[in-house]
Amino acid sequence: MALAAVFGYLSRFTTVPSSMTESVRATLDDDVLVRIRGLTTVLGGKTIFDQLDMDIPRGKITAIMGPSGTGKTTLLKHITGQMRADAGEIRVDGRNVAELSREQLYKLREGIGYLFQNSALLTDFDVFENVAFPLRQHTQLPEELIRNLVLLKLQAVGLRGAAPLMPSELSGGMARRVALARAIVFDPMLILYDEPFVGLDPVALNQVLRLISTLNQTLGITSVLVAHELAAVRQIAQHVFLIANGKVVAQGDPKTIADDGSPWTRQFFGGEADGPVPFQYPAGDYAQALGFAGVVK
Q: Which positions ≥6 away from 181 have C-beta within 8 Å?
């Protein structure tokens, strides 16, 4: 069965009953699924976000890029309510994440799929049970329905035959696809991908790119990618945010953002050593640290 046909089949017949997976939804008809205003976060005395503003459009693929250590993964944790900001507001589907009760937050998370950097498969469970895990934890579905849902999700990522394998028997690309099957098991409204392309060979990379694109086109979900690979992002994303120094320093079409003339984009996408992104982590006086205080420099 063709990939798009599989996803079409999933969207028509395999949605988990809404009474068990209904997320906290806004009644407001809004083209923005995630709205971030004035986000400020300070960790260990370092400002990670400084009045950050960002609008992530509903039903599209958005990439968040930036130098290492700029808080891209931290931003995903804010969106899911794993971390609280010092100031500002994040609204997901119209709801202020910081104001949700624990029960409401858990309901919201059922509508969010998360693909971790290292896939985060449970090493003591086989592929089937890894994908089934969210269903067993958060629903009381009969075993037959769980089985059918898991096999359909694995079929969608091309790994139904790998159901009995253990994570240690999977290649990096296969593990990433199993993690994707687990992320879509609740038919989420939003999927967050944390470095989904790291460590993939060209064949596995193209498979993951195709899966992400097909998910959005067929199921109408929203995807947010944290990534560094501009060539891959250009193939599937509709919008790119470049963050640095706690703010959005550039944004736009992934096909043209690298040529916008900004020193940030020129350095980041050109791989230049010198520019607004510093090489040295902030530190005190070097001579003083070496015990040469008072030496004329």
A: 131, 150, 153, 154, 156, 157, 159
DSSP readout, 164-233?
Answer: T--GGGS-HHHHHHHHHHHHTTT--SEEEEESTTTT--HHHHHHHHHHHHHHHHHH--EEEEE-S-HHHH
CA 92/CA 6 separation, integer angstroms: 28
Contacts of 293 (CB under 8 A, 6+ apart): 287
In this structure, which CATH number among 3.60.40.10, 3.40.980.10, 3.40.50.300, 3.10.180.10 belongs to the domain 3-269? 3.40.50.300
Task: Report the side by side order of strands in the sheet with 87-92.
Answer: 46-57, 32-43, 87-92, 95-96
Q: What is the pLDDT of residues 116-149, one digit of tens each?
A: 878 889 999 999 999 999 999 888 899 999 999 9
